[in-house]
Amino acid sequence: MKRVCLFFVCWLLFSSFFSFSQTIRGRVIDINRSPIMSAQIVLSQHDSIIDSAFTDDEGLFRLNYKQHNNFEILTYYSGYKTNKQTMLNASGDIKIQDIVLAEDTLNLEEVTVISRSSSNYGDRVLLFPNLNDVKTSQNVLDLFQKSNLPGLSVNMVSKTLSINGRTDIIYRINGINASQEEVTALNPNQIDRIEYERIPANIRDIKNAGVINVILKRDTGTSLSTEATSAVSTGFMNGNLNLTSGFSNSYFSFNYGANWRNYNEWTSEENESFLHLGNPETFSKTTNPSLFGYLQQNMNLGYTYIKDKNTFNLRFLNNIYTSHEDYNIDIDNLSKDSYFNRNIHSKTKLYIPSLDFYYILNIDDKQKIEMNLNGALSTSDHNRNTLDCRPKASVDSIKSNINGNSKSIAYEILYTNKGGRFSYNVGVKSSYTILHNESKSSKERDDINRLDIYPYASIGSKFHFLNFTLGAGLKVLNNKSGDLSRTYYSSMNNLSLFSRFKDISLQYVFRYLPNYPQMNYMTDITQQQDPYMYIAGNPHLETSNLLLNNLELSYQQKYFNALLSFYSSHEYSPIRDIVSYQEGKYISRFENIDKEELYGTSFYVFFPSILNMFKIRLESGVNYYKTSFNEQRKKKLTNFYYSAYLEYFKNNFSLYAGWRKPSKSLSGEFVTQGENNSYVTAAYRIKNLLFGLSLYYPFCSGAESKVNRESEIYRNNRTVTIKDNAYMLVLGFVCNINWGKSPLGVQKNLNNLNQSSPIKY
Question: What is the model's pTM?
């Protein structure tokens, strides 16, 4: 670690030594004088690249050069004609006139465009989807599958995304905070580019796994898109309806999405051991093919008004979730040579409406103020009934009914200044949440109030070939549960260094941040799971502290991309689910343990176009996990993983397949193995219609996952299989209709959607 730090200090000093160059500043706009974000600016001399940059969200850019030379300035942006300007005998710091780009009226349907699909730009990758990918993608998830986004995994069955195994991703559409469902409901034809951050470098986002910002085309017009997928012989259906329309200075959007599952072949194999002193017991549990299903619905309305220097955005979001489970389990008590049957029936209902308001004031070309206000409600109802039927004995029943509701309000104010050699921002965000849980079965009640205040600031600049960003913030959190009130203070810091030379780039990101206990971890309510196991909260949890280091070397050409990553994490006093034995009861609750460590490396390679017909993506890596519960108790795990993706594309037809080896991870007492992920899909487009045929989980028994839990007093090994998913044939249909033109969407950076919900077990 000391060598790494020394290397980057020397790197910074070396870069600063060569940083005393002159600058060229300017702005890129369209014919309507609207700024163009992420346009590529290239400063060249005799066909050699001197410097390059991308415009920011205000269309501004800055280039470095040595004076008294002749240069050409080339400006590129998808869908616009290339702009070329000549500078003779340039000297000193120069501010050039606005570069106006004109739309390229070439009909892309009639030509094949082969270009670099993505560019590495410091803290993010800009991906411009090519025509073949757009034409043959049934939805945005398909488009993500086909694209050059290292570390991003797509599960087409669960319709979820993950970055390096984590699902806490920030989603944005035109910079406006959005849900995953809103992003996946988009029409791929609307997308101009995808801004992808697999390692967030901004102080506002460093706690998350990554950022996916989908930028729509500048003239989306009125758009109506529908998508439907359905399995032939399994209870599996997805549907989306997305309508956007704009006129004058107003822009409207409506989205409805639904995911329905109804499985009949849900099974599990489980071995469970209770190792209490003097009387250990071991159970073998076999779940017969059982019922499991859910219905998730999202209905969202949005309105945006843009005029002069003011932008106003209002969104009303609704998330509705219901699920049911009906398990029939044969249980053998291997210690006592006895058996019995257990039936578990549970239902869950969850509803989260929220209202999100956003306003931006552009003071001038360099300064702006952003404000975000969000209010949300949440209600949940969880009912679980467990029946144990023993031969020649009475029926034992355990009921658990938990009702919960929460109210929250959050705001954020951000000032940004991008003038001068340095750019900086200063902001503050705060939230207040009230969480109430009540157990009808035990008559327990719990109320938790949480106040969160977070002031932060960051500064960034470019020294010749080195970009850096430095950020710091102070997190103040007050949590009150019953008569117990606690206040936590923690700092959040990050450093990002980025350098690029031609096709090679190097990036280092350091992050130091706290992990606060979730509100439902701190409840006083205790819930009985079965005759032995109880689930309880812990209002005495402490904050953990996490140190993250990422070093990445990337190589990018037109027909080949590669990424080599090295990373490590150290978490002190992490909060983990631990089993203890108290007063004749096994209690599972979250507690602070000593330390967790992770060391890993990964390699990614992507061939976007082989013989103009094939696309190949390979990814592999190895992770080493180490958990220290205390000085005497430690656990270790080494995991090797890999994945492969192959695609054949021609005109309006695409055939692609993917497979990922299930990876293992260690967290506290748990060793988790994720689902196997395999699929084969064929898609064909006829004008505005797209037809798809997919086969999920071929050559396996279905979706399978494993969880092993081991402590000194309790062990549980469980394998869950959804046999309904094996060789699941899925039909897909997409219809897109577009007409007219609409105004440009707003670029929003503040994201304060409600993240709290009532307790769920």
Answer: 0.80
